[in-house]
């Protein structure tokens, strides 16, 4: 097991029966020996069987997950949604949230870069809400409703853009590839408005679409328009701050305590991070 | 009058009455003398009055316009729309077209770069339809319905993005700045689908949105997704070909016959074009 | 065989005799078994012999080729050349064409990106001539002779830049690496002019060199000058349109009917394409 | 006065005496009439005299300043400094702060982009400290001392890089142009360490230099190394968040209430911002 | 006169006779007074007449020129040419040099960036030859003939690309715009080879073309191929070194001794240079 | 052995004893057979033992080294240092040189790109001093002391940035990653000045720091400030010229005489170089 905390395993001479017996996302019990292959550790499996009840293990023991329970995360998001004063904005947020509430319980926020684990997206939203709350207090000219709604909606369509199981993105959906989660969320805002008879050219609908559409800041990062509302500028930086610091936190957590450097992190200018303490 | 075909005019010592009397987009008759100011010709106006019926002139004598009448352009667009075989696609195109049909009679295709004149957008669509028709015959694997619909819809929301009068863009609308014409058109497709009960995840709705969203090809040119349908690739190049060649045609038309070089053209890598003939 | 339509094969324990017996670009008959190696199919060859007459197969059964016969392609190119009115231009085109006529029968248009098969370059030229013909009719200000000549000459030196066999580029020539096909074609125009006593500063020579030199549009794409003649702008977009749509067509043709997505295509912004039909 | 809140004034026919009598950064009383010149308002001054005591005005009535008094800002910075636990870090921060304490009372944070007013730099530091405090609570893996020290030191040499009066940068110093404030601050850390006999290769010295050197994140933004400590990543995003939101706040404050759009803001992707309210 | 050493002058109320009397590139004698306009000095001319013999001045007193006489420069270039051992290379260099020998006596090396004065191009060549001589001695693996020839030929077509008088470029020629000096020089090499029956695919012809074509190093700087011969790499850096250091030298020479900073220099990353001495 | 002059070797079935017996950077004697693996030659080792005295070989027989002895290189650098007239500059150079004198005897100039061998850094400095000497004679406005000092100091901290053995960089130091050799050298100048009581704002200290800090020319290449002294411009181009031509020389030396093309060279725009001679 290297700094990444992962090790590959090989089971040679699989029988046809065995091939059918095991499926992805199932727990198994294996016996084998550890070898070195191309300078990496590798487990050569000698025996394998499905996990049974007596093994007393469950899938959630083996998956990375956000440090707060999905239920608590969803509750926080809903409570925040209910604090929104503007009725149009609250209605639209509720409509979009209802579309993915089940998936929010388990979807990651991204395939690789950050929060790539069980309930990672909900966790990302909740941490951003904390930061958004602070920023709104520090900068009272910001519209609190818009910040809250923008944070909840900015990645809300990601569970439809990606296919994921147990916090691991396996693929992008056709819809996700052709439209992208940013415009999908924008579509949902339109749907919500039509369904609830909120005029499409009302300030609320336009502002919410703008928040979602511009939150990647630049065209080359996927935003068809650039932030032009004070709250849209804030949303982009709240998102960036949380995503980048979570990459840092995850990289440190995934690096063995004995290592002073993490692997290179693509989202942080391809740099590795050093773990530094002064108290030695 | 220089190579641009424009000359500025100054009327000094305007009275308050006069200031109120004249409005933009009105015809006037002026008398004055031509001077040179900072190496450019300038008309110093000595007398000015509103045009009257006896002057026997009309606004359309003075504005640049597409070489085909707006009525003919709109008819061609509608006829093409009616040729679309797929009923969902035709319904969506008809819905979006109805939103801007009046404005299509006079809106330009852009503020500066190309087709910046009366009915320029409709003219751009019609020329692209001609080219699209050729390409579909040359490359039968392309879906004709999707090409036709994509061409009609790709810039369909521009009249809502811009404010224009007589073919001249005066400003962008708030809506246009915050959402952009690309996502506005995508919104209209969603609206059309909901209105006509076409499922939002039907292939037609997704494909039409994809065509519109990806037609600028790159994120830095405003497209939140890149072309991933054969027809979307074709649409981008049909649009580019028509826009660029129209820039060429317009630049030549606006340059005095006596000049062998046009002014620099921003959309053509900031290069000027040379008028070249071999028959001298 | 994956979506690329290719499968690798391994023949272990080759004898020295066998090593000498087989050469590249020869047909062989093999017998073997299919295995999986690193998640890809692989043929393990057990027996191998040269193809003989009785096998009743020919090399052209196994190579990708343009859908029109090389003879027909060359004839179309020559017929178009003969339609050129301007005698200087026609003379230069004829001179350059004569240099590579034999190779045009089989050379591809590029190593990887597009038309990478037998007679691919001639096919590319012919399809561009069709498109050029349409564009000249739609935009009568374009000089037809210059468009025709530019299309025929734009890649005419590619067969000297690359070494290819049976439509597959094996290497670039020293000459090709040091000068590049763009300047090589420009050199040939100079040669042609000197040979036929056409003044080097005549409009025809300068214009043809400009067409060839600028057809990649930007310096970073290999053009030492940018398009500054109307026809040079047109040539670039005709070339781009044909190359990109051929990439699309080839990618679809090389992808199994059962797959809805092609592999990623480098020349199309590294995106895969989706095969979409509405009639299901 | 346009959206920028500024208006130019012209005083023609100045006498030589008058020319000598008035200096920059002095208060004057003027009388004149307002005119339009090149579509902008302009004051034509008819009388001018120096301000006298009876006018009962002071310079600080006319300069933009941070909303908190310089004394309070400095006190907050010093109190934070004193909270630093690590003695080496505290010593170095104190040494650097002492070098510019007087100038911190009045220097802006930048020439144009953000906090460009009286005590703007101290204000920037204090707001960042508030944000840093929040982030350290939300992300306990961050070293609080390093965050505090990094925030105080990151721009500490700016008052030596720029020459400013009353919050307005008039010029860059030779030293500032040749070395830049980032390396100047890094130099001061070295000086501090040598003066106080802290080893130059101690973790504290290296970490503080790294914080300062990397806080612009990318080489093209002026940082010779990229963030490779968790706290350095945090510092960059704290700085970015505060600078960008202050640009937003300043732009709104400097735009007349009657205008819904601010001027374009260079630091915000050259976009203007819209003032949006929902309660109308 | 500011740091640029230039001052503009205005002559108002010109009579029609006077307008015809004076032409560009003629010497005149003026009388007038100095004023400030838009913060710049300006001469208001009160009297003007043509210079006459008695004024005892000549045009060359007023133009910037290389510090070595044109005759000496040309002689050095020719002597170096005659030292070339390879007869093919020498023949080609002689052919190209003969084409522009007269113009080399006075042409500048560029419109703005460097050596923008009388005989500037010849001076640039001669200084590069000195540097090339040193480099060939330091790095004996370089082919001396190729370095010498490359230096003489690299910009040899510039006098045909630009129109200049007295060392000042007034315009680019049509030929220069459409082909560019790099390919023009390459053409001349082809011409030379054909004229002197040197095979076009001989190593000498290919190498010389490669040297010229690649000397701008990158496509975006105008080179259609990148350096792939050792001597081509050397040529690019010899050219860059001489051009950049001449920009430095010219900027210092054109800046008043009393100024410590030059104006910004576009070719030096848009930076100004400081004049620094230690002996004060 | 391919064009790179390297061949990999495999020793299978290593015993635990053997694993401990051999360490990196020791000489061994092996016996084995040559095989082809993945189209590359590979030595399959059958016997291995440590080299003994009787083998009569030494480590320096097997490492790449600069063509001049380390002692001679160091002596040249010191002699040049002693020629510096300005006492402050000489003192600072001596201080920095003393810090790394031992390592200069063996350190390479870079990990991969150029002078990547034993004493490569010292060799780079010496060749640059030769070039600097020539340039100062050609351009007398340059300050000779500053050029000499800049050349000696520009990479002086590289031996602290990298860990190397026998001319091969094995790693970067923590210090090197967090501060970088450019700022480390700048730190040393500050240290030297403090130690020898040279004022930190003296022209000599500022100029030397500027030389070092700006010598990579652009921010994206690691320089926090851009060259703004004439000598800093010269230093950058002297460094570039020497590094690039050494890459050329090394690539040719490392390519078998029978090959006409070197491998691709990353530092030379990823191009391979052709070995060209005319005398065949």
TrEMBL record, chains A, B, C, D, E, F:
InterPro entries: HD/PDEase_dom, HD_domain, NA-bd_OB-fold, YhaM_exoribonuc/phosphodiest. This is 3'-5' exoribonuclease. Residues 117-253 form the HD/PDEase domain. PANTHER family: 3'-5' EXORIBONUCLEASE YHAM (PTHR37294:SF1). Its EC number is 3.1.-.-. It comes from Paenibacillus hunanensis. It comes from the Bacteria. Keywords: Hydrolase.
């Amino acid at each position: 097991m290297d700094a990444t905390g992962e090790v590959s395993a090989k089971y040679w001479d699989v029988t046809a029966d065995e091939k059918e017996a095991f499926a992805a996302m199932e727990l198994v019990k294996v016996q084998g020996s550890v070898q070195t292959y191309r300078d990496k550790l590798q487990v050569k499996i000698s025996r394998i069987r499905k996990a049974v009840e007596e093994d007393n293990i469950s899938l959630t023991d083996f998956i990375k997950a956000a440090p707060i329970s999905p239920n608590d995360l969803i509750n926080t998001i809903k409570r925040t949604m209910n604090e929104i004063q503007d009725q149009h904005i609250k209605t639209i947020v509720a409509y979009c949230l209802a579309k993915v509430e089940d998936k929010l319980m388990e979807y990651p926020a991204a395939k690789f870069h950050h929060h790539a684990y069980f309930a990672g997206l909900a966790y990302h939203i909740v941490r951003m809400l904390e930061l958004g709350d602070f920023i709104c207090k520090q900068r009272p000219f910001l519209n609190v409703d818009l910040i809250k709604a923008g944070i909840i909606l900015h990645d809300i369509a990601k569970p439809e853009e990606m296919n994921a199981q147990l916090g691991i993105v396996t693929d992008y959906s056709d819809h996700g590839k052709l439209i992208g989660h940013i415009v999908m969320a924008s579509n949902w805002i339109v749907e919500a408005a039509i369904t609830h008879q909120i005029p499409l050219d009302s300030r609320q609908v336009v502002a919410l679409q703008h928040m979602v559409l511009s939150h990647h800041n630049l065209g080359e990062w996927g935003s068809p328009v650039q932030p032009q509302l004070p709250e849209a500028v804030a949303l982009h930086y709240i998102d960036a701050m949380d995503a980048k610091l979570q990459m840092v936190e995850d990289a440190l957590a995934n690096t063995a305590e004995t290592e002073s450097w993490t692997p290179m992190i693509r989202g942080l200018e391809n740099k590795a991070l050093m773990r530094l303490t002064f108290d030695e």
